[in-house]
Amino acid sequence: MTLLSVNLNAVAQLRNRRDLPWPSVTGLARVVLDAGASGITVHPRPDERHIRRTDVLDLAKLLREDYPAAEFNIEGYPSPEFFALIEEVNPQQVTLVPDEPGQATSDHGWDFHSKGPLLTSVVQMLKGEGRRISLFCDPDAGVDGVTVARASGADRIELYTGPYGSCHNDPDRAEYELAALAETARAAHAVGLGVNAGHDLTLANLPAFQAAVPDVAEASIGHAITADALLMGFPEAVRRYRAALGS
Fold it and tell me: In total, how many domains does the chain have?
């Protein structure tokens, strides 16, 4: 069973097109959690082009008071501002990503070999009671990469599934990408790391992913589930994604 964490960045980005309080990030967090999502994911960026710092604080309060069993996953680059936010909010999971400040979206995992000392320092700084640390990981990181990731003290990796997600019209390439993801996932489990996944996972490509990459603990899905929600509403979209994930 793979748990579903709904990424609300796209909701926040839509809201930010106007100086208006809707669509409500916290309101839709309630909707997806009531529909059975296991948690909420956000990736606040320095320019606040989608999720704002105030959203993070509001979501933390919502989950703490009304959904104590739900998981809050905050993604971000390890900057001093990010450290301060994590200490203030204390989410259950922190996912570290190697994004540049102005990057449009996450598009690669950590170079574990060159950034190993940095990640070890950051992981130890961020680990707290009940707080899990996950590292964004390229699909082809393989044994060597996940071994370094494990040595940093991280609890999980998050497989970057973007290259697989982009193969919607190229089945041969999709098969290649799935093989790489499966190999890295196996290597991660072998060294004691949990495995998450995220980026461009859809109702169409999840079945093949789930079959090829078993024992994924959690999938963080934002863009696709938001696009589907425009057609079917968020409650139905959450139900369908949970079914595709076996949760």
Answer: 1
Query: pTM value?
Result: 0.95
Give the CATH number of the domain where residue 175 resides.
3.20.20.70
Binning pLDDT at 50, 70 and 90, where does residue 80 land? very high
Catalytic residue among 71, 75, 158, 177, which? 75
Residue 113 annotated to the active site = no
From 50, 158, 199, 218, the catalytic residue: 199
* CB-based contacts of 34, cutoff 8 Å, min separation 6: 235
| Residues contacting 23, CB < 8 A, separation 6+ | 11, 14, 15
Q: Which residues lie across from 134 on neighbouring strands?
A: 95, 156
Residue ranges of the alpha helices (H) in the chain? 9-15, 25-34, 53-66, 80-89, 112-126, 142-151, 162-165, 171-190, 206-212, 223-232, 234-245
Range of the domain at 173: 3-245
User: Between 171-190 and 142-151, two packed helices, what is the crossing angle to 10 degrees?
Assistant: 40
189 is catalytic: no
Q: How confident is the model at residue 74 (pLDDT cuts 50, 70, 90)?
A: very high
pLDDT tens by residue, 44-64:
999 999 999 999 999 999 999
Identify the CA nearest to 118 among candidates 147, 150, 152, 168. Answer: 152
Tens digits of residue pLDDT in 159-216:
999 999 999 889 999 999 999 999 999 999 999 999 999 999 999 999 999 999 999 9
